[in-house]
Amino acid sequence: MKVKHLKPDPSKTITWAKGMSQELFIYPRTADFQKRDLLFRISLATVEAEESDFTPLPGIQRTLMLLKGKHKLTHQGHHTKTLMPFDQDNFMGDWQTSSQGKSTNFNLMCRAGTSGILKHVKGIENSETTFELKADVELIYLYVGSADYNGEEFMPGDCLVIENRSREQLKIACVKDCEFVQTSVTIKET
């Protein structure tokens, strides 16, 4: 099991008219979101306007988990969903999508050939949290709290990326109560 500890990278932040997006991880690592040559991308976004429209992303399956605020997503011709913290919505990137509400959200974008899920995991102060690793690539994002992984401080905004081809477990010691988002992505063999 190969584990990499990533800190927030300000150079991976995109500011747009109604908020910002920070790339946490992209695969393959040589991919460029602007060129859309990715298999999958994991990002954090803030929406600072009461109303906004999502950028069309044809060919990309999106999963969005709300972290903070309240967000109403309307996918024209498909469905409408109101999200509270840690609720999720799945939709295609080419759907015409608008949102209402200021928020912070966690995003997974997958192209054909990949599939992924997001899971909210709570960690209790002074205890270990165990993560089941079942996918090809796993990303564990610390949203709130503080933790320790193998003697290394794990702070909000930090991620652990695990490239994993076997079923294993990863344990993180929570120094304070923690809120994690675990992203599990399977890459289909071609």
Q: How many DSSP-defined strands?
A: 19
Quick check: average pLDDT?
93
Q: Tell me the structural class.
A: mainly beta
Give the % helix: under 10%
Rg measurement, Å = 16 Å
- Taking strands numbered 1, 2, ... along the chain, how are they ordered across the largest sheet? 2-3-4-11-6-9
Choose one word for the global shape.
globular
How would you describe what is shown here?
It is built from no helices and 19 strands. The chain has strands spanning 2-6, 13-16, 19-27, 40-47, 51-53, 60-69, 71-75, 79-83, 88-92, 97-100, 103-111, 114-123, 127-133, 137-144, 147-149, 152-154, 159-163, 168-174, 178-187. The protein is globular.
Structural topology:
Elements: E1 2-6, E2 13-16, E3 19-27, E4 40-47, E5 51-53, E6 60-69, E7 71-75, E8 79-83, E9 88-92, E10 97-100, E11 103-111, E12 114-123, E13 127-133, E14 137-144, E15 147-149, E16 152-154, E17 159-163, E18 168-174, E19 178-187
Antiparallel strand pairs: 1-17, 2-3, 3-4, 4-11, 5-10, 6-9, 6-11, 7-8, 7-10, 12-19, 13-18, 14-17, 14-19, 15-16, 15-18
Features:
190 residues, globular, five-stranded antiparallel beta sheet, mainly beta, six-stranded antiparallel beta sheet
